[in-house]
Amino acid sequence: MLLDDDSRYLEVIQFSLESADMTVDTAVSGAGLSARIERFAPDVLVMDVMLGEHNGIALARAFREESGRYDLPIVFVSAWTGTGELRLPGNSVMLFKPFTPNELIKAIGDALRGQQVTADNNVR
Fold it and tell me: Other CB atoms closer than 10 Å to residue 113's CB: what's the count?
């Protein structure tokens, strides 16, 4: 499942993932996230860190607390270039924009295997 507030970006990423034989559902906001995930039952959630005025990391934490789905891997994507540390919830990885479709596919695979991706998109 892809969650990003930029619908054109979602279309490009959806096309790339579907071209790699993945089934994809998309959402442009976090509204009803729990219900959508319950219906679609994704293997992984790919979501932007900044969703308009909302914080994707906080949204993911709230979703996990509400649903108890701590097992759902999350790939966070972000163009964030600030200093400091982003505190990701467990069972998640970070991929920084810009990235190629192959890098996203690799990050999804890493998340499904429980590996951690570093700031430079390398697996640790």
Answer: 9
Q: Kindly state the average pLDDT of the residues 9-16.
A: 94
Retrieve residue 51's tokens: 């969703």
Instruction: Report the CATH number that the domain containing residue 37 is assigned in CATH.
Output: 3.40.50.2300
Distances in whole angstroms, Cα of residue 81 to Cα of each of 4, 22, 45, 107: 18, 29, 22, 19
Q: Is the dihedral of CA 49, 52, 55, 56 positive or negative?
A: negative
Based on its alpha-carbon atoms, the radius of gyration of the chain, rounded to whole angstroms, reads: 13
86-108 residue pLDDT tens: 677 778 888 988 899 999 999 99
Q: Is residue 32, in this structure, part of any structural domain at all?
A: yes
Asked whether the beta carbons of 102 and 19 are under 8 A apart, the reply is no
